[in-house]
Design a protein that fits this description.
The mean pLDDT is 97. This protein folds into 2 domains: 3-76 and 149-219 and 331-392, FAD/NAD(P)-binding domain; 85-143 and 221-329, D-Amino Acid Oxidase, subunit A, domain 2 (D-Amino Acid Oxidase, Chain A, domain 2, 2-Layer Sandwich). The chain starts with a strand and ends in an 18-residue tail after the last strand. The protein has an 8-stranded mixed beta sheet. Helices cover 28% and strands 29% of the residues. Helix 1 (12-23) packs parallel to helix 6, helix 1 runs parallel beside helix 10 and helix 2 (55-69) packs across helix 10. It is of the alpha+beta class and 406 residues long. A hairpin with a 2-residue loop joins strand 11 (182-188) and strand 12. The structure holds flavin-adenine dinucleotide (FAD).
């Protein structure tokens, strides 16, 4: 049976979904406003972890890690994009330690047996880079790590093309045409693209795409996030830096090696929503966050927070770059992975908050299952466990939020 789908947006979500649906026998067209990877997918810290607080996210991430490890056979290319250096969450105070203990129980119940709660002494012994006097402990998962995002969307796009997917770049979708309440065509680059099913994979642009297509107005807030890059310095060698896990300090600053000479750092900071951001705003660096503004900028604040937890980083050679992009944040930090009640053949895969790169394989799996079903589904199964989809539904009450988003 010939079944066709148009996917809108060529980031990690759109390209992985394209491969998955092509494998399931769909005739796929992917429309991307600019070029593959033009959105947050090329601006991400690309951490990947299974240490989340809700069962749905932990299971989705366990599945994602498994797919990213077997990327060449599951998606394509020659290498896996995942670097499993582990994730170390440093804790301060007894309350934080108790909350972490409860999370570790949830995570282990989801099959993440390798996650551990460490005392301050154990942490400093196993990770000499950490100042053990400043913490009450840590949680550690060795199978977490970070991704090479350009490998994910680059190889996924190549694999999609090899499977017959038509990818049209420079093609912003500007209109939708409906018949009998269903979307039948979208318009981009002066051409009309008809299909049985349409998928919105535009994340931070999701509310706008929804308006264009007559969909539900989703609460997805485009929020600026910054990354800063420190040059290696002091006594740390290149191989030592390359072996560093992703570390999250008790203040929410995080870092992981970008390469043997550079440490990426970031922070969850307040930011006003920018619903009308344009493409250039993705790279706009506000003075407050720009390392070139000097030592009063937030860049230096983050460096100080990381150095408090990891004193060796205090001897690094300085900050050499600031980059930025948008989160598409929802009120409960869970994405929407669901049919749009206003347009029954429109799937919305948007609102990934801080974890859309890592969630990509799970988002694609849910899209595939919903596409096969042709309507809403209560749950999907991953790694032998049932994952209810209510947490990702449109119209949910946002009560059961994912607490572990940075
Ligand atoms: C600083 C920073 C740090 C982050 N850290 C992490 C992290 O550690 N781990 C993690 O998993 N995630 C992280 N994220 C979030 C992650 O980057 C995103 O959730 C993820 O990249 C979203 O991928 P996507 O494919 O859904 O969206 P995007 O990559 O944004 O792709 C959407 C695409 O849609 C296109 N588009 C928009 N409108 C239209 C239209 N009308 N027609 C056609 N195309 C359109 C855009 O051009 C864009 O290419 C971070 C993000 C930032 C900014």
């Amino acid at each position: 049976m010939d079944r066709s789908v148009v996917i809108i947006g060529g980031g990690i979500t759109g390209t992985l979904t394209a491969v998955r649906l092509a494998r399931s026998g769909w005739r796929v067209t992917l429309l991307e406003a600019a070029h593959i990877g033009a959105g947050s997918s090329s601006r991400t810290a690309a951490g990947i972890r299974q240490q989340f607080s809700t069962r749905e996210t932990v299971l989705g991430m366990r599945y994602a890690v498994d797919v990213y490890k077997r990327f060449p056979e599951e998606v394509g290319g020659l290498v896996s994009p995942i670097v499993q250096n582990g994730y170390l969450f440093l804790l301060e105070g007894e309350e934080a330690r108790a909350a972490a203990a409860a999370r570790v129980q949830t995570q282990q119940a989801c099959g993440l047996h390798e996650v551990e709660l460490l005392s301050a002494q154990e942490t400093a012994f196993r990770f000499p880079i950490v100042d053990g006097d400043r913490i009450s402990g840590a949680t550690w998962c060795p199978t977490d790590g970070f991704l090479r995002p350009e490998v994910v969307y680059g190889e996924a796009a190549a694999s999609a093309r090899a499977r017959g997917v038509r990818i049209v770049q420079g093609a912003p979708v500007v209109a939708g045409h409906h018949q009998g309440g269903r979307l039948v065509e979208v318009q981009a680059k002066g051409e009309r693209f008809g299909a049985d099913l349409f998928i919105d994979a535009t994340n931070a642009w999701g509310p706008r795409t929804g308006r264009i297509l007559g969909g539900t107005d989703l609460p997805v807030a485009p929020l600026k996030r910054y990354l800063w890059f420190l040059g290696r310095g002091g006594a740390m060698t290149g191989p030592e830096l390359l072996r560093m896990p992703m570390v999250i300090t008790p203040t929410g600053a995080y870092c992981h090696p970008e390469n043997a000479d550079s440490l990426m750092t970031g922070l969850a900071h307040d930011a006003p929503p920018e619903p009308d951001f344009d493409n250039e705003d993705q790279d706009r660096i506000d003075a407050e966050f720009d390392h070139r503004s000097g030592v009063d900028s937030r860049a230096y604040e983050v460096w100080a927070q990381v150095a408090d937890a990891l004193p060796a980083v205090g001897d690094f050679a300085g900050i050499h770059a600031t980059t930025t992009g948008f989160y598409g944040a929802t009120p409960d930090h869970n994405p929407f992975l669901a049919y749009d009640p206003a347009v029954p053949n429109l799937l919305r895969l948007v609102g990934f908050s801080g974890h859309g790169a890592m969630f990509g394989p799970f988002s694609a799996l849910v899209a595939d299952a919903l596409a096969e079903e042709g309507g809403p589904l209560e749950a999907v199964e991953v790694l032998g466990q049932r994952v209810p989809l209510a947490a990702f539904a449109i119209g949910r009450d946002f009560a059961g939020h994912e607490a572990m988003v940075i």
